[in-house]
Write a structure and sequence with these properties.
The structure holds 3 protein chains of 3 kinds.
Chain A lengths: L1 H35 L2 H35 L3 H5 L5 H37 L4 H12 L7 H30 L8 H24 L7 H29 L3
Helix pairs in contact in A: 1-2, 1-4, 2-4, 2-6, 4-6, 4-8, 6-7, 6-8
Chain B lengths: L1 E10 L2 E11 L3 E6 L6 H8 L7 E6 L2 E2 L8 E4 L11 H11 L5 H10 L13 H13 L5 E4 L8 H14 L5 E6 L3 H4 L4 E6 L2 E7 H8 L3 H10 L8
Helix pairs in contact in B: 3-4, 4-5
Chain C lengths: L8 H14 L12 H8 L3 H13 L3 E4 L3 E4 L3 H25 L4 H10 L2
Antiparallel strand pairs in C: 1-2
Helix pairs in contact in C: 1-3, 1-4, 2-3
Classes of the chains: A mainly alpha, B alpha/beta, C mainly alpha.
Chain lengths: ~250, ~240, ~120
């Protein structure tokens, strides 16, 4: 399993390195802005950091789905399937590596943003107004904001993305197995992806209600919900690979 | 020992392999011969545990092949399959990471014999060099069964000799070697037995020297007889 | 080496080795390659190579020292015998072909004498 994870990382480290470089660049700008108390620089670097976070997490996930697609649809599939590893392990390594990367970078971005906010609070006296604004945006109320809550809300978002990546895996595998030979297999599997994610949304809303209520227990159970879905889609995908995939 | 019992594989209604039963014993080199698209590759992939038969079973040492038999059965596909970013050395490293029976010394030795450098990028190798690399890395395993799918496809005469040498060197009393080809002559002197596959069916298993000794015909003659329906009676 | 398609490959390799011994490309008493190396040298199946040595040994052209390998016999008369046998084989082939052409023995002898 270790070797599988190692080579999964080997396939995607360039993309991750790129995201890290962008983050470092904007973070440096941010620190420079803090030091010089230069608001233009701060605004630009904050925008840059937020964009890098969103795009970075998006790209890492999508790139992982692209790698899986390449690994089961091209001749390179032998590289994985000739090794004495089951589909469960092969996909498991991908889930651990890719979702792990998203989680780790997600946590990294969350920690970084909290750190940067703390820095802002220390350097600027009137930044509390800004924090209050964020508090309203996230929790719907002034003064409800705390760093734990903020972190958990972000983590909730990251987990939501992790489950979507696993759903993407499922769509790619369905495309290469059940729909193989179909002219519209790419389109059909994308439709399947959309339909399943909509269904999941409905289930989610049925359980939790469609209003966004900010509370710690709610967030934690949300994360659990997505973790369960991730596991479920992993098992279904690996089962299909094991039984239907022709390398 | 590798044994196939009435193995059939269907893809979307098309039958690629139809009821093939064969038995491969250690200590022999087998050729799997037949025109392109006759089902050789599909059978090999099933024996390698890469795809599952629609019906029938392939057993290695009395156990159905699957994930764990890949530890003992080394399969080499026709098409190059290495990752684009790999160098020749990376390919060896990859096999070392995944196969307990892989020997880096054996690999280094074969690279030297075949004039391949570890620093070379797989992307930049010629088809002959890639063919040699595939054989070198597969044969550097100390597997019990080797299955090489069209190892001589599209390579020049010298590379062909080097590949055949590697195959001969690694045949052993406890090993099964299966080499497929759609050209009969290039394998005739190297194999003990030839398995003929025609239109997804087994068309016969022949012993090369026995054909020459008792029927006074070469394997190529037999091939013409089986596939071309031409009578090739020899005179001893 | 090119193999003709009618005779067993092991017999063709045996003839090639005998020819090498007769021509002293391989000397009497010299060690022969292991059967695996022989297989590589002639691009033949290792089982065929083992059979080559078995046959050569049976005919007394080679002998095996345990753990040392296979050696060419030092018995010169054995090698002479080989030469004679092979020459006889060539002659038989020749006579067969020439008679198929409808040429008599006497004519053939005359032709041999006049052929440069």
């Amino acid at each position: 399993m270790g070797a599988l994870i190692k080579y999964e990382f080997r396939k995607s480290w360039k993309m991750k390195g790129l995201v890290l470089c962008f983050t470092a660049f904007f973070e440096l700008l941010f620190l420079l802005g803090i030091w010089r108390l230069n608001e233009d620089l701060l605004a630009a670097s904050c925008t840059g950091l937020v964009l890098t976070t969103i795009c970075g997490l998006f790209l890492i996930g999508v790139y992982g789905i692209h790698i899986l697609s390449k690994d089961i649809n091209t001749k390179q599939s032998y590289m994985l399937f000739m090794t004495p590893n089951s589909s469960y392990k092969i996909l498991g390594a991908k889930v651990i590596e890719n979702c792990g990367s998203v989680l780790v970078s997600g946590v990294f971005f969350i920690a970084l943003s909290i750190l940067d906010m703390m820095l802002l609070v220390v350097r600027y006296d009137d930044v509390q107004g800004l924090i209050d604004l964020m508090s309203v945006a996230i929790t719907g109320d002034v003064g409800n904001f705390n760093y734990q809550g903020f972190g958990m809300a972000c983590f909730d978002g990251v987990m939501g993305w992790v489950y979507l990546i696993c759903l993407g895996y499922l769509a790619v595998v369905i495309c290469a197995t059940l729909l193989k030979g179909n002219r519209f297999n790419g389109l059909l599997s994308f439709v399947a992806f959309l339909v399943i994610s909509l269904v999941v949304n409905h289930i989610h809303d049925a359980i939790y209600g469609d209003l966004y209520i900010y509370s710690m227990t709610r967030l934690i159970s949300n994360v659990g919900f997505y973790a369960l879905l991730t596991l479920l889609f992993y098992l279904i995908t690996a089962w299909i690979m094991d039984n239907k995939l022709s390398v | 020992m590798l044994e196939s019992f009435e193995v059939t594989k269907k893809f979307l209604g098309k039958t690629a392999v139809d009821g093939i039963s064969i038995k491969l014993e250690p200590g022999h080199i087998y050729a799997m011969l037949g025109p392109n698209g006759s089902g050789k590759t599909t059978w090999m992939k099933m024996a390698a545990g890469l795809i599952k038969p629609t019906s029938g079973v392939i057993k290695y040492n009395d156990q159905p092949v699957g994930v764990s038999s890949r530890n003992d059965i080394a399969y080499m596909s026709t098409e190059p399959y290495f990752y684009d970013w790999m160098t020749v050395g990376d390919v060896g490293k990859y096999y070392e990471d995944f196969f307990k029976d892989f020997s880096m010394e054996a690999f280094d030795e074969m690279l030297q014999e075949m004039d391949l450098e570890k620093k070379l990028k797989c992307k930049e190798l010629s088809s002959g060099m890639l063919a040699k690399l595939k054989v070198a890395v597969t044969m550097a395993r100390d597997a019990k069964v080797y299955m090489l799918d069209e190892p001589l496809n599209g390579i020049d005469l010298l590379a062909r000799d080097e590949v055949l040498n590697a195959i001969i060197r690694h045949a052993g009393e406890d090993k099964v070697l299966l080499v497929s080809s759609h050209l009969v002559e290039e394998l005739e002197s190297v194999v003990d037995y030839a398995i003929f596959i025609n239109k997804s069916h087994l068309a016969g298993v022949y012993e090369v020297e026995e054909l020459r000794q008792n029927q006074c015909i070469s394997l190529a003659d037999k091939y013409r007889e089986v596939y071309g329906a031409a009578e090739m009676g020899g005179t001893c | 080496m090119q193999y003709d398609s009618k005779t067993p490959i092991y017999m063709q390799v045996i003839d090639a080795i005998k020819l090498d011994i007769i021509n002293e490309r391989i000397r009497t008493g010299e060690k022969l390659p292991s059967s695996r190396d022989l297989a590589v040298q002639y691009t033949i199946n290792p089982n065929t190579a083992a059979r080559v040595y078995q046959e050569l040994e049976r005919e007394g052209v080679c002998y095996t020292k345990r753990g040392m390998g296979t050696f060419v016999t030092e018995d010169e008369s054995k090698i002479k015998e080989c030469r004679h046998e092979m020459a006889q084989g060539c002659l038989n082939d020749f006579l067969k072909s020439i008679s198929e052409l409808g040429i008599s023995r006497e004519e053939a002898i005359e032709m041999i004498k006049t052929t440069k």
